[in-house]
Structures are given as structure tokens and as C-alpha cells.
Amino acid sequence: MTLWNHVQAEMSSITEGVEWPISLNVSCQKLGAAVACSFDFINKNDKEDYYILKRGNYQLQYKGIHVHRNPPERDEFILLRSGKSISASVAINNVFEFPKDGLYTVTYISPLQYISKTSMELESSEYQLIQSQVKKSFSIYLEDVAASVSKPFKEENKGRLIDLLSIEGCGSAGFIGGSIKQKIGITKAHTQLCKHYRVAKNKIDNTQLYETWFGEYTPSRAKLVTEVILKCIEGLEGNAVTYRINPSMCRYNWNAFTYANSNSVSLCPAYHHRDIYCKRHGSPTKESILAHEWTHAFGWTRDFVYGEKRTKELAKKDPWKAQYNNFDSSIYQ
């Protein structure tokens, strides 16, 4: 008989003496071959409604999809009315692997991002989100893992690989799908990757530039950043990588996605409207998005934060996380 502890936890989102208006109830149980967790978000403010951003943030060894998205739009929020609650359920075994029997501790970690209904109605472009620091752990005991729990799903390459190109100094790349124009843009961006990863590696030193993007310098942390870059160079030079163009999994606001330990990156329709080459400031480009995604695939980085502003903030607040962030930094040029 498979033994599970059905655990419930209730949490008030309080950090450094500040009580946030949204609290969380968590419960998990085994349902068939799935490990299902439910999250109930409660608006404790009896005077104001909030919109919650519906995007994930993963702290465990995540084996699901890594997505490069555009800034959130209105339909990515869900309205949480004053004094009410909303629920979301997820099968966490679809993105986390349980390798053996035993006691597992699962952590819900945020920041939970939201905006007041009033502010949402006033703002028209990029939203100024409030961040509530939410963190709660709960433990589940699992037996007979191999037979009873399904493993994370990973979309395989589908379609015929065409136009396998040898890229001087940066391995080879092939394409599945896409137009000639789209493949030309991807190829131009790809040809810069290894050269610019090497430039980035040479910038890892005790400098103001390093501190800006990765926080206080220590030799051990700098070594980990260097290892991520080297894994990307070695991965691109040592593998025939694949670009899957406009696969069916794409959503309208996705630029690209990949998986850890993958030799392929999928590029969505929004990606093809970007400029090609990296620039010091401004919106992501084709090249910077590829550099970002290959750090997930080869370097096992995570999406703790996106963009220049929040990457700099992360470097100040949590240098250890900054080492493993998605390389949205001007170290890569």
C-alpha cells in the first residue's frame, strides 16, 4: 500500500513586520499517478480587490519547461475580490521528479506578484507590481515511487530536421519548421553566441561590473558563474543543437522555451519580431533570448527574475541566487 501523509498548511504572508493583504492555504495529496497540490489565495483586505499574476517560480530541482516571456498583459492576471479566495491546483510531478522513496519537503516560494484593481484600470502598458514575500514548506512521505508516480513530461523534437548548418567556432545548428527569413534571423543570432559567451567569461572578475550583475564578489561564487558560461560554450560546440520554430506549444506572449539538459530551443512567433543582435540596454533581442535559453538548457539556470532592473536588485539582495539566474545581464554582450 502506498503511504502518503496528507498535509495542510496555513500561512499569513508576513515579512519583516509587514502584513500583506493576501494569505495562502496549501494542501497536497496523491491522486492516482499524480502528486496534486492545491493553493488557495485569500484576499484579507475587506476594502480592495487585487489582480494576481499567474506565473510560476520554482525553487526545487525543476525539470519542466523554461519559458522566456514578454512582460505580462491583462489576461495573465486573475481577479481576487475583497474578502474572497481563489484556488489553483497543479500536479507537481509534471515538473519535479521524485527519484526514490522517502520524505519530501516541498516549498512554495514567491514573490507573489499582484496589483490593485484601481491601479490596473489606470495603467495601460507595463504594470507596476506589488511583491509579497511568501514562503511555506510542507512535507510528504512517499513509498513505491517507481511504480506509482509518473515523471515530468518533456516534449520531444517532432518533425524533420532540415538545413543543418556548421557555425564556425560554435558547433552546428539545425531547424525544424520555419520560413527562410526566420531561419536566417536565428542563424545570425546563433553565430554570435560562442564568441560573446567567451567575452562574458573573461569579464568574471572582482569588478564593479560583476558586482552590478551578480552581487558581492567572492572567488567561489565567481567560479560558479564561470562554470555556467563554460557549460554553454561546451554545449554549443559539442552538440548539433536544434531550433524548433513555432511549435504548437507556443503561446502568444512566449518568445522561446527549453528544458534543462536539452539540445534544443523552441522559438515562438513573438521571437521573430525582435532585433537580432545584443545591445547594452532595452528590450531582449534574438541573440539575448538564445543566450538566456541556452543557460537553462546547458547551465541549469533558473528564472528567479527577468530583465535588467530586477536582475540588478537580485544581485544586491541575494548574490547566491544571482549566480543561477537566467543571464539577463550585460556581462553577456
Automatic annotation (TrEMBL):
InterPro entries: Lys_MEP (IPR029463), MetalloPept_cat_dom_sf (IPR024079). Gene3D superfamilies: 2.60.40.2970, Collagenase (Catalytic Domain). One of its GO terms (molecular function) is metalloendopeptidase activity. Residues 202-325 form the Lysine-specific metallo-endopeptidase domain. It holds the Pfam family Aspzincin_M35. This is Lysine-specific metallo-endopeptidase domain-containing protein. It comes from Amphimedon queenslandica.
